[in-house]
Amino acid sequence: MIGPGQPQRVGSFRYYLSEQRWEWADAVAQMHGYSPGTMPPTTELLLKHKHPDDRERVTRAFDKILRGEPFSSRHRIIDTHGRTHWVVVVGDRLLADDGGLLGASGFYIDVSDAMQSDLTEAVAEIAASRAEIEQAKGILMMSYRIDADRAFELLVWRSQETNTKVRDIALQFMQAVTGIEFSADTTQQIDRILINLPVASPQQP
After folding, report:
1. Rounded CA gap, 178 and 111, in Å?
2. Is the peptide bond before 198 cis (omega within 30 degrees of 0)?
3. Cα–Cα distances in Å, from 10 out to 96, 119, 150, 151?
């Protein structure tokens, strides 16, 4: 869990296409080494912080934003102190009430100290747990190779973003992933499910 004074490791962003304007949560600013509210994000600034070896791949993700397509990327950023962070960035279309494309919205997860857990062991742990939150945490741990605290932070972040109880978010998430066969494409499916929660009122057990 996040203690007092510790940096948040999950944060949201938005990009408005017509204005070519970015917004980022305080947590995302801190991942890049900035104090909240001190540096407005721009495309040039974001690209400047990408690791040189990852910049071409991230540029392709930005191109998807401009085309109004969902995207996800795991890459490195270098903060203002010269520290390298591994991040997972997931985004989807941001739509107006009439269905028109406004831009993109999504989230960053700092996975710099992520667990490299064994897939078989993770699946076994998920099967052994009956609690919705623990099951959802297990799936997120396995998909993003993050630890249990980071997975819970991701559920809490989605809960706060949507004003939905954490348990309901977890239950909807588990309902949505039921039947998915884990493969190389699984993470992209998890991306889409997570960013579109909540999708419906959960069924009460």
Report:
1. 25
2. yes
3. 25, 23, 8, 10
